[in-house]
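Appendix B, record 7
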Amino acid sequence: MSPLPLPLALTARLSPVVVLAVAGWALSSGPAATADSGTGQGSQVATHASAAPAASSAPPAAKTYDAAPAPCSGVPAATVKSLVPGAKTAGKEIPSTDTQLRRTCSWNALKGYDYRWLDVSYEVAATDEAAEKEYQQRVTEKSGGGAVPGLGDGGYSVVNLTTEDKQQTREGVVLARVANALVVVTYSGSDFESKKAPETATINKGAIKAAKDAVAALRSGAK
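Structure tokens (predicted):
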């Protein structure tokens, strides 16, 4: 197609401008323009405000512990030997669905007629507050015990006796919170000859000893 003659080309380009200019004049001189004359600056402010970038979100709070440490190194061999005579000091880690969040090691042995079982677990929560909430909930569930002073940021122990087929078993549970991590120790014992269970003090002291070792290992960065 040959280019339009210059006068026609200018007319084609300027026609929309003329129409818009006429429309703008009608709007600016009409009643609506009078009503909105005092709000022109406000609309500009709103436009600028809407264009302002959103405030950046605060970074997530740092966690003391990102993952549960290796639990079988949380209790020294000397402690294992004294609490679970005859057990392999290396322990056995129990499979977990998420080893980042929870890991457990177990020791158990029967020496003569005397049976002992020790479990040590590390559990990691998202925040200190979440760990504290979980700690308090478990303390409530295992009522009847008492506080353990100086054990982490909070410590609690409870001992219970159960009897099945005339065989007694005494079990102690110690809970400790350290920042956003929980340490859970379960220690139990039975005597299959006498059908009796170890004394409450024996189980309680043993569970607290293992918990103190596990807390110390956690704080020292045991892997």
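Remarks on this record: The helical segments are 6-29, 31-36, 40-51, 77-83, 128-141, 200-219. The chain has two domains: 6-49, 71-219.
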